[in-house]
Description:
This protein is of the alpha+beta class and 219 residues long. The protein has helices spanning 5-11, 17-29, 34-45, 86-93, 101-109, 123-126, 143-168, 183-197; strands at residues 58-60, 62-69, 72-78, 94-96, 114-117, 133-141, 201-204, 208-211. The chain is built from eight helices and eight strands. A hairpin with a 2-residue loop joins strand 2 (62-69) and strand 3. Residues 5-179 form the AbiTii domain.
Amino acid sequence: MARSKLIKDFISSNMDIDTALQNLMVILYCLDNERLVNWVSKELSGYDTDDELPEYRKLQGIVRASFIVGYVEYSKRQFGIAHLDEQMQENLLNTHIYSSISTLIEMKDKEVCIGKPIPPEFYGILQESTNAHITNASVDVDLGMVNDIISKVKTKILETLLFLEKEFGNLDDLDIDISIKTEEELKNIVQKIQVNLYDNSITIGDNNKIKSSNMITNK
């Protein structure tokens, strides 16, 4: 079977990631599964704070602070937090990335710093047991981590398209004939795509989760 042109265009960079996501959304609508379409929609438009966030968008940043020690000012230096308890460190450093994939690409290209400000009322706890007086602090995320999100989304798009092509044939009409599959086969197809899109975790029935499952495109 000849490879679908939309797949070839995507892997050869003749199709941007937003267009690839839009094409994938049209195809996934045929499977009538809201969770699959929702993943595409959220990557296109961005996530809300109460949305189910994929694991690859949950990052850990580092604390950077501007502070004064004696008469010397330091600007945007990494600031140690080993004196904080483990739970507080985790809550502080955990950084969820909600922006759309196109926004992340733009921020990466412009080398815009991504992170979250630390409220001034927290400075006292941060500088405890030090001789520093903090004037500004934030939790910053390395741009390499942002690039990793972009790469993962690209890979998930490609793997899903390849899997759909394997199951249903050429995708260039942005349509798939689900009548060639049984109900059980369609259920398994949907589950495998969910595993891929949501980082090896899918929700079935009464909120049980299947973890550590991998989507295999050549099986």
